[in-house]
């Protein structure tokens, strides 16, 4: 998720909050604007807090469960199933509000996930193959073990849900991890972040391969043409993000009709967004010094600001250049981070956690092999797969544990990998129709995510209190 995905954790490629204009020389002339700047800075600190973002998503899910078990359920379902239509000439397109959330808005979430992946591949931990391979391989173990547990428990039954327990929710899990503070070694947090990103990438691949509809070759061909156009923008060294966004919307529409899950358009778009600036960064300081001299020469204290033509013209040039210093990838990430964390993911959680349990026998859910497979896949399979692969890699000398970490922390990392909220709910909706199997799967996802979160925090505190020794032999 996306986020944090990107995703909900403070972005690795965006500033945590805007620069304070009063940090050096007072430059804002209007006191009311100064107060607004301070308020924006406080708001930005809140919106960049991964724990708060995860809390917003959890609150939306809790509200959804409450609403689903009251009389408000029926009007809410009617609203979610209400058609949204758009008419362009003879063409009329329509989808439900719930479909719009799951197919379009979640494509924006996947865009944030793709941006985070591209950042890590370009300038983050995934640039070092040796350092990156250990958490990536651990993520593979964390996908295989839950799928195997689910399949064994549903042998001869609803085996189509094998992918439901494979994914880790980046936003939720990293938000929980942030509560641990300095109880977790920084290198272990990087390990977990990389693992969660790789986990989401595997989830994206699974959705693409196993959860599309019957492919439509004409629409797939159209999607390929749009991808070719995006590649053309990169070859032409176009650095205006708006053109990529326009083509991304066209790509989403083509994929929606192609039979491939439309949310994947967000990931594809992310990998075409330029990661470089068209400005020579080494010359920026000298250029700004020259513009500073121009501003000094152009400024006339006797003139109204509307008459300061030379001054404002130079200021616009500075504004344009400084905007272009930031690569399009980072500009897009900055623009979507807060909407994803505080609107899209909570809205998705509210729409998809509508679990109506009125008249449902709890024992029937507890005894349902689908619920058992999902729950045990997340709370047992995830830590088992992650820790087992990590232990094997350490034993064979492939790589040591992350610096400053220990096996207790690795167990906690594995347990928190079982926080599968967003991606697991999405895959459960793709795996099952709106019947008892989907209800059982979603109940298990929510229960497992809460259980893994609490268990992970308890283990982190126990490990910290015991002062486990640094990494060594098992």
Protein architecture, described:
The protein is built from 18 helices and two strands. It has 474 residues and is an all-alpha fold. A hairpin with a 2-residue loop joins strand 1 and strand 2. The longest helix is centred in the C-terminal third of the chain and has 31 residues. It is globular. It starts with 30 loop residues before the first helix and ends in an 8-residue tail after the last helix. The relative contact order is 0.16.
- Oligomeric composition of the shown chains: single chain
User: What is the H/E string?
Assistant: HHHEEHHHHHHHHHHHHHHH
Largest sheet, in brief, is: 2 strands, antiparallel
Report the mean per-residue pLDDT as an integer. 84
Distance between the termini: 33 Å
The percent range for strand residues is: under 5%
Helix content: 55-70%
Number of DSSP helices? 18
Low-confidence stretches: 1-24, 468-474
Q: Which geometry do the CA atoms define?
A: globular
Please provide a brief summary of the model.
This protein has 474 residues and is mostly helical.
